[in-house]
Design goal:
Largest sheet: 4 strands, mixed
Shape: globular
Bound molecules: glutathione
Keywords: Oxidoreductase, Transferase
Pfam families: GST_C_2, GST_N_2
Distance between the termini: 51 Å
Helix content: 55-70%
GO molecular function: glutathione dehydrogenase (ascorbate) activity; glutathione transferase activity
CATH architecture of the largest domain: Up-down Bundle
CATH topology of the largest domain: Glutathione S-transferase Yfyf (Class Pi), Chain A, domain 2
Number of strands: 4
EC number: 2.5.1.18
Domain GST N-terminal: 2-80
CATH class of the largest domain: Mainly Alpha
Strand content: 5-15%
Number of helices: 10
């Protein structure tokens, strides 16, 4: 099978989904980083939406992180999606749900003022409540073993945990199942290996550089 190439931006949570899966499934892959502020022409020719991740396989581009996840799960066995069609569809639905929380989380980090920050924090909190209600005995979404949904949610949970350590509101405090979920995911080597060296500083530095409410109020940017 041809070696896939992942087109990446190093802080992107959607790209991180693909990297975690490639690592979990022990796939040999190449990675090419691009600067999203100056997208190269070859990338724009490859990516219809101009977004990362793109997984290039045999000269063809797969885009949309959830689609890439499904592809990787199909071609690199064993599958880690539930086998039952209904369970699988429900897991897919929650992958979409988590994608919407990536947007809320980014909006929270970038909100220009307190009102915007609090609105996004509340939106994220409501989403996390819905996830908390879905979790069973854990530690993973479906129980004892991690599935595609877990690795698709991991980048969000990792960022929330990191921000909370940086002094932002603790969104896991009143959500014990989520706390257990994030702890189990962060224990996996694929999580730490899926981000660049110095990820925490780079991520917080990126937020800081945007001058948002979080940057000024929590991260001490001026
Ligand atoms: N729905 C897409 C979202 C990907 C996405 O928004 N990627 C961001 C980086 S984290 C991007 O490429 N943004 C560039 C742009 O919108 O111009 C997916 O799941 O892959």
């Amino acid at each position: 099978m041809a070696k896939p190439r992942l087109i990446s931006f190093e802080l992107c949570p959607y790209v991180q989904r693909s990297v975690i899966l490639l690592l979990e499934k022990q796939v040999d892959f190449d990675i090419t980083y691009i600067d999203l502020a100056h997208k190269p022409d070859w990338f724009l020719a490859l990516s219809p939406l101009g977004k990362v991740p793109v997984l290039e396989v045999e000269g063809r581009a797969i885009f949309e992180s959830a689609v890439i996840a499904e592809y990787l799960d199909e071609v690199y066995p064993p599958s880690i999606h539930p086998k039952d069609p209904l369970d699988k569809a429900v897991n897919r639905a929650w992958i979409e749900f988590v994608s919407s929380l990536f947007v809320a989380n980014y909006g929270q980090m970038m909100a220009p003022d307190q009102t915007g920050f609090e609105a996004k924090n509340a939106e994220l909190g409501r989403g996390l409540d819905q996830l908390e209600a879905q979790l069973g005995v854990g530690p993973y979404f479906n129980g004892a073993e991690p599935a595609l949904i877990d690795f698709c949610a991991a980048p969000l949970l990792q960022r929330i945990e990191l921000c909370q350590r940086a002094g932002l509101p603790d969104l896991f405090q009143s959500r014990p199942k989520l706390r257990c979920w994030v702890t189990s995911l962060l224990d996996r080597p694929s999580l730490s290996q899926s981000v660049p060296a110095g990820f925490e500083e780079k991520y917080l530095g990126f937020v800081k550089s945007k001058g948002s409410y979080v940057a000024q109020h929590y991260l001490g940017a001026h």
